[in-house]
Amino acid sequence: MHDADCVAFLQWALPRMRLHWPGFRKVRRQVCKRIDRRLQTLGLADAAAYRSYLAAHAAEWDTLRGLCTVPISRFYRDREVFACLGHTVLPALAAAAVQRAQHTLDCWSAGCAGGEEPYTLSILWTLALAGRYPGLALRVLATDADPLALGRAAAGAYGSSSLKELPAPWRALAFEECAGEYRVRERFRAAVEFARQDLGETIPERRFDLVLCRNLVLTYFAPDLQRELMPRIIATLRPGGALVLGIHESLPEGSAELVPWPGARAIFRKGALPHDGPAAL
To answer: CB 3.0 to 4.6 Å from 18: which of 118, 167, 207, 225, for a disulfide?
Structure first.
């Protein structure tokens, strides 16, 4: 399929899946290659034939949505964000959790792809912070709609390029090398639970101290779906909890209950932390 034909097809198909074309511009070539392979598998000649196939086979829309999922992730991706989490945000959230007599610091990695983000969070907590909060354990729910990505995440094995941004001392402590890959050690895997979940359909029925929703809802989802989902995502946060977005993303209108975390980029706080005053109670 020629690029122009694929772009026209995506501009037709994405809105029907409540996805947002502008978010796909930079990754369209990868998506188009996937769609080309799907056409070959189905024995279809072109985009027009695929449109007819979609009209006759409603279940194919789920397959197409999966083809449009483009996980781009690395350990410690956007290092300034994780540095701020380690230096400021997580200590504040941990102190608030201890004050509430919690035994776990509950986190959600939404759209976790191959698992790099939730494992980074576990590594950061275990190596930099856990010793300061001996009665508090980190617990991370990591969700994604792609079962293949979740399979890779559960395996916890990565190429060296995925680890290049992680601080070198952490690489040595958190991974064991095996057959040319780097496998996350068990002590860092234990804190992470993986689950299949399509944010367009369901939201976890839990409360979290920290939610990471980076480069997903506010990049790839259609504006009307963004406005529908963001209040539900924010509602999963405990008072004083933190929401982390992608560094190029902005909150949609109507998110007044969130305020920028002081000194942080792309991190927002829900009201005040408990020790800040009555607003967090």
So the answer is: 225
